[in-house]
Amino acid sequence: MFRRDPLRAALSGVEEVLGQDLRAALPLLRLALRRGGVLGAAREGRVVLAGLGGVPRDGVFELASVTKPFTAALAARLVQEGRLGWDAPLSRLGGPLRGFPPFVTARALATHTAGLPPHPARALVTSFTRFQDPYGSMSARDALASARRWASPRVAGRFAYSNLGAGALALALAYAASEEVSAAGYGRALSRYVTGPLDLDSVALTPHPARLVTPTATLLGEGVTGFGPLVGAGGLFGTAADLLAFGAAELDGRAGEAWRSVIRPPGLPPHLTGVAPGWFQTREVWWHDGVARGTRTALGFRPADGAVVTLLVRGGLPLLGVRGAVPGALLAMLSGPKADR
User: Which fold has domain 6-334?
Assistant: First the structure.
């Protein structure tokens, strides 16, 4: 008696929910999930979650850069509250945001078009000396000073992916929400405006230890990845179920509709057709992926039929192709033939 392939069985459940043939995605999924992980999909109220390789389906993962859509959702809520303007210079918030050049806006930071480098300058060294926590030696004041110093009018308006920019935005959002300008202040603002109202209990800056999926160790270190004051760029944790719920909330407007504001700036990589606050766009799919030191994540949705897919896996570097097999598998599942309505 042959044992059924667990991945094929999981993919069959996803096919039922999405209403499409996903066999073409199987090779990338097998590559992405070789150390285990969670595959999930949702559409029209139906949800499927599968834990693979010994990983529980309700396990808590590092979300890494899948944090960025949550930061953008917080910005959207603060815009709704009148505490922030998408296109107003960030410096108008005053306080620690004074001195930022006028081209640095919430929208520019959320779409990587604010003219900032990928990381603070010191990360060139600390990526090696503090591999698991390269931003941990910085204070929030240091992070904002770095963003203020390196914002370039020559680069502004072009797409240039920036953890520094997303992290600086999160600190600005904490200030706009009348919270302390710190990682903790961002976490409180996010809970008050986004994760609390959406009942996303697992999404937080501190994971439940018993539910945390242990990241894969590397030659340079082990354990979760720290983001210091730049947690809004990659410091959240969460479950696949809550990621699917967040994706659904984006689609129905409960998490705002900033994702609809797609721009196509110069400098976009070939695999992207646009970028919106917190999201990449590849044709009909909005998505983001994340790479921590020992885990990888991806979340995407397809507005045409309300499909949402997430993939959380053990294993960080090395990457393969377009930021690796994880986003490739996600896009393969969401870019296939659309389901019949």
Answer: Beta-lactamase (3.40.710)
